[in-house]
Structure to design on (237 residues):
């Protein structure tokens, strides 16, 4: 985390998509956070490679897929393109209804994408797996971000969001460390497959242990929150 650099840009809405495309093309951005003029976070776009880790992609490009540096650059771009495509879609069709099943399904899809990538020796199939990985990660990121903001008490919302972003930021470095250590112990492909299996196992456990999460509906939650805020306003008066 010590080498992480944060840059801020002020742009108009018409220039937003062009700027996102430029940053994705540069290939060295881990996460984009879009805020309004008040500083409120509107959207978080993950551009990371997730559990696979940037440290293992060169190994896949050089020794397994045999595509060299040019192919490595394309592999690194695929998750970002998947995330960007999905997030643009969510601006038109937000995942609010049946958010719980969508969240669990997207995380499960993330795990399946990792398994497909780990087992693949075909460059095109690997690209599709990484694209799906970025897309499913983006869906879960949107639902998790909205859920944390919506269910956090107003007087603690900033602190809860800070802790959440702290863990999200640290997970990139911890994931890269875990990937490198597992690759050293088990080998490159088995370590990636292990990450996919663990993702599916954790998703299954959470789905069974948290029935409220399975029933999560953000539209209903928004209605309840509006009623509570109206009652609080009347009480204050």
């Amino acid at each position: 985390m010590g080498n992480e650099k944060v840059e801020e840009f002020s742009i108009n809405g018409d220039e937003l998509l062009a700027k996102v495309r430029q940053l994705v093309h540069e290939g060295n951005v881990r996460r984009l956070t879009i805020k309004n003029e008040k500083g409120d976070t509107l959207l978080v776009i993950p551009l990371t490679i997730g559990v696979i880790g940037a440290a293992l992609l060169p190994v896949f490009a050089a020794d397994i897929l045999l595509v060299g540096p040019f192919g490595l650059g394309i592999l690194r771009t695929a998750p970002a393109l998947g995330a960007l495509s999905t997030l643009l879609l969510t601006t038109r069709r937000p995942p609010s209804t049946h958010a719980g099943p969508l969240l669990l399904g997207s995380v499960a899809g993330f795990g399946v994408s990792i398994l497909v990538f780990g087992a693949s020796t075909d460059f095109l199939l690997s690209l599709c797996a990484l694209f799906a990985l970025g897309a499913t990660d983006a869906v879960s990121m949107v639902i998790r971000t909205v859920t944390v903001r919506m269910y956090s008490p107003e007087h603690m919302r900033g602190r809860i969001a800070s802790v959440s972003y702290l863990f999200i930021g640290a997970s990139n470095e911890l994931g890269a460390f875990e990937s490198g250590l597992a690759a050293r112990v088990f080998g490159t492909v088995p370590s990636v497959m292990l990450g996919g299996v663990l993702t599916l196992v954790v998703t299954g456990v959470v789905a069974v242990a948290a029935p409220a999460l399975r029933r999560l509906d953000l539209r209903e939650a928004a209605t309840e929150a509006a009623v509570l805020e109206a009652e609080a306003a009347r009480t204050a008066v």
User: Anything to note?
Assistant: DSSP finds nine helices and two strands in the chain. Residues 157-186 form the longest helix (30 residues). The chain has a mean pLDDT of 77. Residues 78 and 127 are 6 Å apart (CA to CA).
